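Materials and Methods. Structural model of DUF3793 domain-containing protein. The 186-residue sequence of DUF3793 domain-containing protein from Eubacterium cellulosolvens was retrieved and submitted for structure prediction as follows.
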Amino acid sequence: MSDEMIIEHCSPTLAGIKTGNLFSCEYSDRQCFLKEICRLNRVLVKKGINAIPVRYSENRVLIYVFRPAFLAKDFKDNDTASLLEELGYEATDVRACVRCLSKKLFNLSSSKEFPHEIGLFLGYPVDDVKGFMKHKGECSKCTGRWKVYGDVERAKQTFDKYDKCTRDYMKRFRAGTSLDSLTVFA
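The predicted structure was written out as C-alpha cells:
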C-alpha cells in the first residue's frame, strides 16, 4: 500500500473536507501489511485520522481511513443517530460504532446483506443512505461518489469538490509533496 494509493483514494479525508474513505488493496503477507498500517497511522494519527483494516479476503484488504472527530459530529445528527440505533449501533460511542461496522464486515457472508449504513461512516447524507437502503440501490436521482436520493445539487457540488481535491492532491504528491505535508489537522 503506497502513499500514492492513500492520496488517490482518501484525499478529501486527508484535506479535512470529508469524514472518511474506504478502499481496497492487495496484500501478500498479513504481517507486512499490518506493519504498513502502523507506519501509515504514525503519519495520520497526529493529524486526527485513523486507518484500520475492516475486512480481509484471500489477498485483498478493505481499509477505512477516517476522522473520529468528524464521525462523532456526524453521529450527533438526530436522523443519523436514530438510523444507527435501529441497526444495532450505539451512536454516542464512535469507537464502538466502528468496531460494530468492522465486525459486520468481517462476518459478511453470502447469506448476510452488506451493511449499507457504511455510507454514514463515509460522511454521506443520511437521506441518501436511507434512500439507498429503501430502494435497494435502485431509482436514485443521480450517481457520483454515491447514489443520491436527496439533494442532487448539493451532492453534485460535493462530488465536484472531492474530485478537485483529489486532482490537486495527486498533482502535488507527484511534484514531491509528502503524505504528511498533504494531511491537514482538522
